Amino acid sequence: MAALPKITKSAPGEPFQKLESANDNKAPISAEALLGMEFPPVSYVVDGYIAEGLTILAGRPKLGKSWMALGFAVAVATGGQALGVDCEPGEVLYLALEDNRRRLKERLEVVLYPPASRPDMSRLSLVTEAAKIGGGLVEFLDEWRKAAEQPKLVIIDTLSMVRPPKKSNQDSYAADYDAISPLQKWAGEHGVAVVVVHHVRKAEAEDPLEAVSGTNGLTGAADTIMVLNRNTDGPKLYGRGRDIEEIEKALRFDKGRWEVLGDADEVKRSDQRRSVLRVLEEAERALSPDDISKEIGMKVNNVNQQLRALIKSGDAEKAGYGQYKVAGR
C-alpha cells in the first residue's frame, strides 16, 4: 500500500491549517485532519437558486426553461438580476445546442430590450454545437475555464444533446448517473456552476424530483434540482439541493423574463383571499361561507380561513351569525 500523504495538523488554540483543495478526495484522511481543514465558502451564482456544482433545470417543453437559463446567463455576465436576486458579475458560457445564432440573437434582443440601455455583453460566450460528455465536452469546458478571467457559470441546453449513448451492458440507473457525473465532478473541482436543462416526465408526480425524466441516477448525481412547472395556480419553480434551501416560488413570465411573485403557498393564499373579497364586494347581501364556496368553487374550510384573515385585516366583517359582508357597507 502506498504511503499516505503527510497531513499538517492544527495544535490546540492555533487557527485551522488551510489545505489547497476541497475536492482532493483520492487518499483517505482522518477525521481529526478533516476537522483541521478550512474550505472556502460555497459560492452562489444566483443566491438561493444556483450554487457552484451541477444543477438540473427541468420542465415541460415550451414552458420557458431556455428563457430562464438565458436570464441566468445574462444576469451573471452583466452583474444584473435574475429572479429578483442581484448577481455578482463573471464570465458565462452558454451552450444553446437546440438553437442557431439567428434565434439566439432574437432571444437576446427580447431579454435586453430596450437597446438603448443594453449592458456590456462581452462576458457571455455562446456556442450552438458541442461534443458529448466523454467525447471532449469536459475538455472543452476546461479550455474555456482556463482562458476566462472569472469563470462562474456554464449552461448546457439541453442534456439530450450532450448525453453519451448508453452502453450495452449498463442498467438505466448507472447510465443516467454516469452521463452527468463527469460534469458534477468538474464543476465541484473548479468552483463553477453548471446548469443542465432537461425535461420532465409526461406523468404527474407528487414529489417534483420524481418528475425529472430518467431514473434517480440523474437526480442523485446532481447537486441541485430545479423543476419549472405550471398548474391551475400558474407557473412555479421548485428547488432542492445540497447547498440551497428547499424552495417553491410562484412565478410570472413577461417579455422574455421570469419574475418571482413570492412563496407559492403565500401567493396562493393571497389569490384565494382576493377571490373571497371580490365575491363579498359584488354581493347585494351578506353571504355565508357556503354561499361563497359555491360561487368560487373553493372548499368551505378554505373560505373560512380567508374570511378570518379578511376580518383581521379590516376588509370584511360579520353581519350576524354565519354571515359576512365587506367592512363598512
TrEMBL record:
SUPFAM superfamilies: P-loop containing nucleoside triphosphate hydrolases, Winged helix' DNA-binding domain. InterPro entries: P-loop_NTPase, WH_DNA-bd_sf. Pfam families: AAA_25, HTH_24. Gene3D superfamilies: P-loop containing nucleotide triphosphate hydrolases. Residues 1-22 are annotated as: Disordered. It comes from the Bacteria. This is RecA-family ATPase. It comes from Gellertiella hungarica.
